[in-house]
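R.M. (postdoc): so does anyone remember the format we settled on? I'll just put the structure tokens first.
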């Protein structure tokens, strides 16, 4: 029954997260707010007229959708005082009073790394997100992101294809999937890891909710890896939140001609750790985890092999731009193979993407 009062108080008009905690300092529990007399509520000075009217009505039917949702298999609603509520989330100034979880609650308290970035990444950025996520997930690090298109989705998929757990922090109620095209991905995440949200059941994808969910992504993680980002983006908000929360910020450098490298380069100038491989992240976090020999992301021990790798694409590249389609036609290689080879060449600074889709030699 106590959960009902937590949900009800959060439904009250003019009661946001910070007001919620101010109220708790005086009344101690949400239940006490509803059991208090109107004069006691007015005396606190925290309630506006519309809020007072809401509390007097005490209409529990307003939270029935939440309670019904919780009856579904694998669905949980955690309050701040529940034993399963993740401790690391309690350290921020405005932790969600209530957390909706679909999936494995226990994974919320495991070591996590956030991987975030552009919704419209380059092919190399997409591959980096996937590879870093897969390699780190194989080391039992839970990958957390926001299930957006682009980098977020690639990070989740990389973890899932490593048969590991991943967490998606959603900007909607968990009865809604956004973007809708990620319905299958959301199902896989909830089956293997968890979908979480601070927003009640029925909440639509409102623009203001997505920056708010970013603080949860950064708070739950040990650090945040920015793969690609423009200067003014939600990704940069997440990175700033991570820094403000005292968490590590990592950034992958790229070509100066790539507009999506600007955010990463700015973060590096501001003190973010420049990342070339998973070891850079593990060293900074001081995690003593076994390195898998088959990691898809290059480790320090394999740099020589990486640098000596003779790319089959070099004979097709020049200082004049060539597209992936043209390389497919000339080489008879698949687009997937070509994308992987181009990524290696970009990481070795031997090729660079220009004009959207063309590639040229850099040296």
């Amino acid at each position: 029954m106590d959960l009902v009062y937590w949900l009800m108080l959060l439904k009250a008009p003019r009661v946001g997260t910070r007001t919620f905690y101010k109220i708790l300092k005086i009344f101690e529990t949400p239940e006490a707010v509803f059991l208090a007399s109107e004069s006691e509520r007015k005396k606190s000075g925290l309630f506006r007229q519309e809020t007072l009217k809401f509390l007097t009505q005490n209409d529990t039917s307003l939270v029935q959708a939440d309670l019904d949702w919780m009856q579904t298999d694998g669905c949980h609603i955690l309050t701040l005082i529940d034993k399963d509520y993740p401790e690391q989330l309690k350290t921020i100034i405005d932790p969600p009073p209530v957390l909706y979880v679909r999936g494995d609650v226990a994974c919320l308290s495991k070591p996590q790394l956030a991987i975030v970035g552009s919704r419209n990444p380059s092919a190399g950025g997409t591959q980096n997100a996937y590879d870093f996520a897969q390699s780190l997930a194989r080391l039992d690090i839970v990958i957390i992101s926001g299930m957006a298109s682009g980098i977020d989705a690639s990070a989740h998929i990389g973890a899932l294809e490593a048969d590991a757990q991943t967490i998606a922090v959603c900007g909607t109620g968990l009865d809604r999937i956004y973007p809708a095209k990620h319905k299958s991905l959301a199902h896989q995440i909830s089956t293997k890891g968890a979908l979480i949200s601070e927003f009640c059941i029925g909440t639509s994808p409102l623009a203001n909710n997505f920056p708010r969910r970013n603080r949860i992504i950064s708070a739950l993680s040990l650090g945040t890896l920015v793969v690609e980002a423009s200067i003014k983006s939600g990704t940069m908000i997440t990175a700033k939140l991570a820094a403000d929360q005292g968490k590590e910020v990592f950034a992958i450098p790229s070509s100066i001609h790539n507009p999506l490298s600007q955010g990463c380069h700015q973060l590096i100038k501001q003190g973010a750790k420049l990342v070339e491989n998973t070891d850079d992240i593990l060293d900074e976090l001081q995690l003593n985890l076994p390195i898998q020999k088959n990691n898809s992301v290059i480790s320090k021990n394999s740099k020589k092999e990486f640098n000596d790798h003779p790319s089959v694409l070099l004979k097709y590249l020049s200082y004049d731009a060539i597209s992936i389609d043209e390389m497919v036609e000339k080489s008879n290689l698949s687009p997937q193979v070509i994308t992987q080879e181009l990524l290696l060449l970009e990481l070795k600074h031997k090729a660079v993407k220009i004009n959207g889709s063309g590639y040229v030699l850099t040296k």
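R.M.: ...and that's the designed sequence above, right after the tokens. Also worth knowing: The chain has 16 helices and twelve strands. The mean pLDDT is 89.
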